[in-house]
């Protein structure tokens, strides 16, 4: 089932991998608004999160006039 392998995929942009979606799900990040509370470094520390996902998420945040929290 897609929701099990890609939890909350509908809340994040296309291009974010399954492992990155699962990493955010397990960390309790369920929306871009919640994602903006995280630093890039903290997000990259999650197993399954990589540089490509960070780039895609950063662009999605920018479209909403948001950004990652600064360290």
Describe this structure in words.
The chain is globular and about 30 Å long. Helices cover 49% and strands 0% of the residues. The protein contains five helices and no strands. By secondary structure, the protein is mainly α. It starts with a helix and ends in an 8-residue tail after the last helix. The model has no long low-confidence stretch (mean pLDDT 92).
Which descriptors would you attach to this protein?
71 residues; mainly alpha
Q: State the secondary-structure class.
A: mainly alpha
**Oligomer category:** single chain
Indicate the mean pLDDT.
Answer: 92
Biggest sheet descriptor: none
Helix proportion of residues, in percent?
40-55%
**Globular, elongated, flat, extended or rod-shaped: what is the shape?**
globular
What topology does this entry show?
Blueprint: H1 2-5, H2 18-26, H3 32-35, H4 40-44, H5 51-63
């Amino acid at each position: 089932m897609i929701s099990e392998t890609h939890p909350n995929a509908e809340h994040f942009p296309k291009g974010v991998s399954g492992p990155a979606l699962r990493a955010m799900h397990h960390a309790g990040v369920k929306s871009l608004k919640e994602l903006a509370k995280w630093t890039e470094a903290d997000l990259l520390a999650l197993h399954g999160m990589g540089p490509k996902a960070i780039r895609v998420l950063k662009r999605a945040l920018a479209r909403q006039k948001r950004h990652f929290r600064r360290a």
